[in-house]
């Protein structure tokens, strides 16, 4: 039956996406950055229902086709869901054990007024890599660095640009990042293979960014770094800072280098960090549990939210963790997006839309450029990076396969186009959130987010050179 069913035209196929855009616009306007707490998920399910209705009512596509496609989509991201849950536990363990605070503490020692912008970018990159969250990085250490930079005489647009550039570099390459895991899972690319391949475009983009910030740093008259010293003192007072804690990220890096499966690597890293928390931060575990039960405090830091008080409000916010429970909104969104993607696939609408793109894909550059353009457009249209990543991956996966390109090229291009540009769009959840947190408008910091601006262009440039792009011979290039 599926071989004879009528396929919707590209114009009809755009209807569910237009409905989704309208619902997301209303949802984000109503709930703002809280849209991910349920509003976006309901919008996706409602749009899924609209897609199914069009297919069943006008194209006689049986419900069974939708059920199979949705089930297959969800099964395809099952490992990603497990990874996200482990990442929630790992994030809590790395924070409470003192691993992340130790890295921040030593990282802040290298800052120098003449290199403030470049140092800000590097510090935010390190924190974001360790936490896997650009939002947490910007809302905590980012705010501290913004205050320091303004006190030293830097314009807020430049400071915010350095903060966001570093934070989104870390978010993009961290194995703890939900967007990184999502891009890899949607394109069926092993997580660490995806991250290693991204380095080809990501490292040059960061180097260029740091060169720009370094040059600009010498043009300002700067003052001291008293606030940095105060923040470092607060870290030292709250945590037992010791180089021994660096064993955790070092061993994690060794496991990654040896290409150990991501689930095993993340799980072992979580266990090691939990053990170090018991050894070095027993007082904090007592504070979390409310009594002297180390086991209870350790378990709570892994699965639930924790809040530790300090003499610094910014430090208190930074060291708050969400645990496994904190990943549920992201998992909920992924499941709903998989339902929408499955409905679009079963109805033939996704294939109808991608057939339009195929006409313009004659070379590697045009394939990558089309993916970049589509990803940015979806960021503009859907106002959410998660949905844009899923839709971009679903739309182009068959095209890349038919043309003989590796899935890692699609996963890398998706991140280059979607993850880093979401914060540059004023009405996107990322753009709204960061503008609110930093009290700097999106259009003010946009020209200075060099990493975010360069990354999509670097993706196309590398495609033009053909470096490390392997194309298999296929019988039906399409």
From TrEMBL:
Location comes to:
Cell membrane
Its name, as the record gives it, is: Na+/H+ antiporter NhaC
Residues annotated as transmembrane: 42-61, 73-96, 116-146, 197-219, 239-256, 263-280, 332-356, 376-396, 445-467
Which UniProt key words apply to this protein?
Antiport, Cell membrane, Membrane, Transmembrane, Transmembrane helix, Transport
- Domain of life assignment: Bacteria
Topology of this chain in the membrane:
Multi-pass membrane protein
Q: Does the keyword Ligase apply?
A: no
Q: Is Disulfide bond given among the entry's keywords?
A: no
Location of the Na+/H+ antiporter NhaC-like C-terminal domain:
166-466
Natural source organism: Bacteroides clarus YIT 12056
Q: Which family does it belong to?
A: Belongs to the NhaC Na(+)/H(+) (TC 2.A.35) antiporter family.
Its predominant location is membrane
Q: Which InterPro entries match?
A: Na/H_antiport_NhaC, Na/H_Antiport_NhaC-like_C, NhaC_Na-H+_Antiporter
Coiled-coil segments = none
